[in-house]
Specification:
Helix 2 packs across helix 3. The protein is 41% helix and 15% strand. With 225 residues, it is α/β, with parallel strands linked by helices. It has an eight-stranded parallel beta barrel with strand order 1-2-3-4-5-6-7-8, surrounded by seven helices.
């Protein structure tokens, strides 16, 4: 039976409300307002980064929230330790996204140990952000409740595709018994639809909805002569 948090996301759009460091929109109130706007547009869930943002969105948006904490610049930086994960959950995230690759974690725990302790200490679910089919299979074996294709093209294991990595998505969706969520470089409605066709349980879109700097660049480059 699918957990209620995941059931609410099935077949829908999750909007990733994040701003890069030093950007004008890097503020919890701004990210919360974007999340509220996403709800009006039909989002079924929110993905957010940082304790302040997660807490603010949790207080004002009545949708399942996938929370994460980016810390560090290299290798494992998406909710890299158990301590980070527990803080994200305490801030209000019902699902915590963690680095789900087979790389060594900064606190010395294995992925399986991290997931087990999260499940033992909280009622939250774990989304493992992976970069390959092998990562996804290992994350499932480690106890993840769902996996996301978030890191495909960013770990050195696979080339960075122009759009979402449909190959990995398709293989994971046909192999794993847990939900596989498409995330990463989903820039158009057509690409989001293709992810569903490839077997995605749900689709995360961030940049194309919530990052005006990048969106402006797309248009500025298109009209430049």
């Amino acid at each position: 039976m699918t957990h209620p948090y995941l059931a609410a996301l099935e077949g829908g759009l999750i909007v990733s409300c994040q701003a890069y460091p030093a950007e004008p929109m890097r503020h919890p109130e701004t990210m919360t307002q974007i999340a509220e706007a996403a709800v009006r547009g039909g989002a079924v869930g929110i993905r957010a980064q940082g304790i302040a943002d997660i807490r603010s969105i949790h207080e004002r948006v009545a949708l399942p929230q996938i929370g994460l904490w980016k810390d560090g610049a290299d290798d494992v930086f998406i909710t890299p330790t158990l301590e980070h994960a527990l803080a994200v959950i305490a801030a209000g995230a019902q699902i915590v996204a963690i680095d789900g690759t087979r790389r060594a974690r900064p606190d010395g725990l294995t992925l399986a140990e991290t997931i087990a302790r999260i499940h033992e200490q909280t009622s939250a679910l774990v989304m493992a952000d992976v970069g390959s089919v092998a990562d996804g299979i290992a994350a499932h074996e480690a106890g993840a409740d769902c996996v996301g294709t978030t890191l495909c093209g960013y770990t050195g294991e696979r080339p960075k595709s122009v759009g979402p990595d449909l190959e990995v998505l398709r293989e994971l969706a046909s192999t794993l018994p847990i939900p596989v969520i498409a995330e990463g470089r989903v820039h158009t409605p057509a690409q989001a639809s293709a992810c569903i066709d490839a077997g995605a349980f749900a689709v995360v879109v961030g940049t194309a909805i919530t990052h005006p700097t990048t969106i402006t660049t797309w248009f500025a480059d298109a009209v430049a002569r």
